[in-house]
Fold this sequence. Notes:
The protein is built from 8 helices and no strands. The protein starts with a helix and ends with a helix. α4 runs antiparallel to α5, α4 runs parallel beside α6 (93-105) and α7 packs antiparallel against α8 (128-143). The chain has 144 residues and is mainly alpha-helical. The chain is globular, with a radius of gyration of 16 Å.
Amino acid sequence: MNKYIAHKILKQEFRTGHDNIKLYGMIGDYSYNLKEFDNAKIAWQNVLKIDPDNVHTLNNLAWLFATCEDSLFQDKLKAYTLSKRALKISRASYILDTYAEACLINNYCEKALYASKEALNKSPQERKEYYQNQYQKIKKRCED
Protein backbone atom coordinates (compact mmCIF):
# COMPACT_ATOMS: atom_id res chain seq x y z
CA MET A 1 0.00 0.00 0.00
CA ASN A 2 1.50 3.35 -0.91
CA LYS A 3 1.90 6.19 1.58
CA TYR A 4 -0.91 8.25 0.08
CA ILE A 5 -3.50 5.51 0.48
CA ALA A 6 -2.31 4.63 3.98
CA HIS A 7 -2.48 8.29 4.94
CA LYS A 8 -6.04 8.63 3.57
CA ILE A 9 -7.20 5.55 5.48
CA LEU A 10 -5.64 6.73 8.73
CA LYS A 11 -7.13 10.22 8.35
CA GLN A 12 -10.58 8.76 7.63
CA GLU A 13 -10.39 6.54 10.72
CA PHE A 14 -9.16 9.53 12.71
CA ARG A 15 -12.25 11.55 11.75
CA THR A 16 -14.65 8.78 12.77
CA GLY A 17 -13.74 9.25 16.42
CA HIS A 18 -12.81 5.72 17.40
CA ASP A 19 -11.58 5.17 20.95
CA ASN A 20 -8.84 2.95 19.60
CA ILE A 21 -5.57 3.73 21.37
CA LYS A 22 -3.48 1.78 18.90
CA LEU A 23 -5.03 3.60 15.94
CA TYR A 24 -4.56 7.03 17.51
CA GLY A 25 -0.97 6.13 18.33
CA MET A 26 -0.31 5.02 14.76
CA ILE A 27 -1.88 8.19 13.40
CA GLY A 28 0.24 10.29 15.74
CA ASP A 29 3.45 8.49 14.80
CA TYR A 30 2.65 8.57 11.09
CA SER A 31 1.65 12.24 11.17
CA TYR A 32 4.79 13.17 13.08
CA ASN A 33 6.96 11.42 10.50
CA LEU A 34 5.18 13.43 7.78
CA LYS A 35 5.79 16.61 9.82
CA GLU A 36 2.04 17.04 10.26
CA PHE A 37 2.61 18.12 13.84
CA ASP A 38 -0.94 19.32 14.50
CA ASN A 39 -2.40 15.92 13.55
CA ALA A 40 0.27 14.16 15.62
CA LYS A 41 -0.49 16.31 18.65
CA ILE A 42 -4.25 15.75 18.38
CA ALA A 43 -3.88 11.99 17.91
CA TRP A 44 -1.49 11.62 20.84
CA GLN A 45 -3.70 13.78 23.06
CA ASN A 46 -6.60 11.47 22.20
CA VAL A 47 -4.54 8.49 23.34
CA LEU A 48 -3.89 10.22 26.67
CA LYS A 49 -7.61 10.95 27.12
CA ILE A 50 -8.23 7.20 26.94
CA ASP A 51 -5.03 6.04 28.65
CA PRO A 52 -3.34 8.86 30.62
CA ASP A 53 -0.39 6.64 31.54
CA ASN A 54 0.49 5.45 28.04
CA VAL A 55 4.26 5.80 28.30
CA HIS A 56 4.92 5.72 24.55
CA THR A 57 2.48 8.56 23.97
CA LEU A 58 3.62 10.60 26.97
CA ASN A 59 7.14 10.34 25.61
CA ASN A 60 6.22 11.17 22.02
CA LEU A 61 4.17 14.21 22.97
CA ALA A 62 6.92 15.42 25.30
CA TRP A 63 9.46 14.98 22.48
CA LEU A 64 7.23 16.99 20.13
CA PHE A 65 6.91 19.83 22.65
CA ALA A 66 10.64 19.78 23.46
CA THR A 67 12.22 19.41 20.04
CA CYS A 68 9.74 20.30 17.30
CA GLU A 69 11.28 22.29 14.47
CA ASP A 70 8.03 24.29 14.26
CA SER A 71 8.08 26.74 17.16
CA LEU A 72 4.26 26.76 17.28
CA PHE A 73 4.45 23.31 18.86
CA GLN A 74 7.24 23.98 21.33
CA ASP A 75 6.09 24.08 24.94
CA LYS A 76 8.80 23.83 27.60
CA LEU A 77 6.50 23.27 30.54
CA LYS A 78 4.38 20.59 28.85
CA ALA A 79 7.53 18.86 27.58
CA TYR A 80 8.92 18.70 31.10
CA THR A 81 5.64 17.67 32.73
CA LEU A 82 4.89 14.89 30.23
CA SER A 83 8.44 13.56 30.19
CA LYS A 84 8.50 13.48 33.98
CA ARG A 85 5.25 11.47 33.99
CA ALA A 86 6.73 9.04 31.46
CA LEU A 87 9.89 8.71 33.54
CA LYS A 88 7.85 7.68 36.59
CA ILE A 89 6.54 4.76 34.52
CA SER A 90 9.73 3.71 32.74
CA ARG A 91 13.43 4.52 32.89
CA ALA A 92 14.15 3.15 29.42
CA SER A 93 16.89 4.97 27.55
CA TYR A 94 14.52 6.64 25.07
CA ILE A 95 12.35 7.96 27.94
CA LEU A 96 15.43 9.27 29.75
CA ASP A 97 16.58 10.92 26.52
CA THR A 98 13.31 12.82 26.15
CA TYR A 99 13.39 13.82 29.82
CA ALA A 100 16.96 15.08 29.35
CA GLU A 101 15.87 17.20 26.37
CA ALA A 102 12.95 18.61 28.35
CA CYS A 103 15.23 19.41 31.29
CA LEU A 104 17.73 21.06 28.97
CA ILE A 105 15.22 23.44 27.40
CA ASN A 106 14.04 24.37 30.89
CA ASN A 107 17.65 25.04 31.99
CA TYR A 108 17.65 22.15 34.48
CA CYS A 109 21.19 21.26 33.45
CA GLU A 110 22.05 18.97 36.35
CA LYS A 111 18.93 16.87 35.76
CA ALA A 112 19.53 16.88 32.00
CA LEU A 113 23.10 15.64 32.36
CA TYR A 114 22.15 12.97 34.88
CA ALA A 115 19.28 11.66 32.73
CA SER A 116 21.37 11.73 29.56
CA LYS A 117 24.19 9.82 31.25
CA GLU A 118 21.73 7.22 32.53
CA ALA A 119 20.23 6.91 29.03
CA LEU A 120 23.70 6.31 27.62
CA ASN A 121 24.48 3.69 30.26
CA LYS A 122 21.19 1.84 29.64
CA SER A 123 21.21 2.10 25.86
CA PRO A 124 21.58 -0.98 23.67
CA GLN A 125 24.90 -1.27 21.86
CA GLU A 126 23.44 -0.34 18.48
CA ARG A 127 22.21 3.01 19.92
CA LYS A 128 25.32 3.92 21.96
CA GLU A 129 26.60 6.43 19.41
CA TYR A 130 23.29 8.33 19.39
CA TYR A 131 23.15 8.53 23.18
CA GLN A 132 26.83 9.46 23.41
CA ASN A 133 26.18 12.33 20.98
CA GLN A 134 23.15 13.40 22.98
CA TYR A 135 25.16 13.43 26.19
CA GLN A 136 27.94 15.47 24.58
CA LYS A 137 25.41 17.94 23.16
CA ILE A 138 23.77 18.43 26.55
CA LYS A 139 27.11 18.71 28.31
CA LYS A 140 28.28 21.37 25.86
CA ARG A 141 25.05 23.38 26.13
CA CYS A 142 25.18 23.23 29.92
CA GLU A 143 28.77 24.46 29.95
CA ASP A 144 27.96 27.49 27.78
